[in-house]
């Protein structure tokens, strides 16, 4: 029940009518302003990036402070559970260890061979450069975007468009950079696109986020490759942002119109992430001598005469 | 109540007036804080964080409409857009329209108790999220409705808690 109750009829004073009229005008103005802002943000989505990074700066320290005790509790619960499953786990791991022994030898040999061949061919590769290790302090769990906040910002030389990794694999890329906090666009965000390679076939694909736990695998590239359930996807290094060979996802379903993959690293329970420089930053285009082209021909002739 | 026109007040009187009337801003402050709460890190596979701010706006519009005029939806919605990452203006546009819708529907639907209000809120919350979904798809990249649907369900589920919280705010801070 609304209080004070709305009067259904009766006379109102001139003052009340004026106030109601003003309120209505203000509402119409508010709706018009909001529609205008929406059109503006449609025209250039990055216009409000500074505001967003400011908001990130504001919210991040709050959640860091709140999450410290929570993380302790989580860690404690995890270690208690570990004790109960210790024997099972050890047996499982011993079995796996035997299985992987052979694989590991083969892998070491291949690595050695690869290094030898590369040095013979004199391959030049850009080096990966780490900017720093930062704590993940929060995320927008909204339905619209999938972001995480990390505890480093422009002060730590983070810039928009840098890859963010965890031990298990790729997390995403930095987008809005504040002074002390940065928003990371997760792989599962709708606007996230990651060029990958299928490890088994070596053919390229594109991972597309859709705000759901799983990612779409777009195979409609030039190679028209196929994937199976269990195929591992690693970054291909296309586009120069992500270094090649990072674990990104595993294919889990091929039934729908697009195969789906589960990201290898989810920010769930992650504590620290690494931010790196873009693997191969895009080269700045050589500046063209624009003056000659833009100047009016007559002006050019006059200039020549003057000289 | 303003007795002296604003332009006739001295600076001291104006400061005094603002100090005396800061409670008018409580609904706005509480909703913005609710938007900040919604950025709480919870890495669930689907969003389970209820839209607390929208619930509070609904409760205010239902129970204390005079404390929250429609136009305040713009600043609150913009704060939400910036904090949550929706296209700037999406919530700012929808919140005033939502309040108008709630006021309009409130006149026509009779409810006996708070459970009736709860049921009454379900279609309204659903319509809001549906409109937000369409608007975001129109302005930016389209995305599936499932995350918004889980958020709507969570929002409907926490209605009684939000109402309790709202009542406490009214008892403690009512302007």
From TrEMBL, chain A:
Segments forming domain Rod shape-determining protein MreC beta-barrel core: 139-275
Record-annotated membrane-spanning stretches: 21-40
Top-level taxon of origin: Bacteria
UniProt region (Disordered), positions on chain: 284-307
Keywords: Cell shape, Membrane, Transmembrane, Transmembrane helix
Pfam families: MreC
UniProt similarity note: Belongs to the MreC family.
Record's protein name: Cell shape-determining protein MreC
Protein encoded by which gene: mreC
